[in-house]
Amino acid sequence: MDDQTDSIRKPRADAVRNRERVLEAAKAVFSAGGPDASLEAVAKRAGVGIGTLYRHFPTREALFEAVYRREVEQLGELAEQLKTAKDPVEALRRWLHSNVAFVATKKGMHAALALAMQNQSELYAYSFDRLTKAVGLLLDRAVKAGALRADISADDMLRALIGMCYMHDQPGWQATALRLLDVFVDGLRIQPAKAAKPSKAVKNRAAKR
Length: 209
Known about the structure:
The chain is about 75% helix and about 0% strand. It contains 11 helices and no strands.
């Protein structure tokens, strides 16, 4: 009886695979944006029928929210993976770079996602909290290693990232955002103190001795 109950409750393996294919296809289609970013295009890219897509995601907003949550979770998992990387600054840089692709997906479904978030303030609170904790994990490690300045918070880092990504909307904005992120991270590095050069007066006194 328990085996029968489990078989009823657990989704079939092919259904799970179809759902993952739809989410991965939706990420690619929505990231590209434009008039071709339709649910039909998502189903075609995933290799499933439009009916299969609607069985998993009955509304456009449901699909957008699922893609969004999946991206947030993957970024959280990436931070966990990177927290043991040898170079803490490069680990932070890699995580920030991965966020550019996440923002590209968000831009592609901005209108519908904004509607979903209006109805679910919990979704925004959850995502901001998850991402802040993720970047904080990597930032704290780099600061403790003495590699980055300590006067920047996880909130500051995340808001700076968002600002760089939304500053440009022209084609190729991702490359600009990645370049700005590199400059930003490098600017936070703690440079080794340089030995002060002796003044001319000190040199003259030394020469007279």
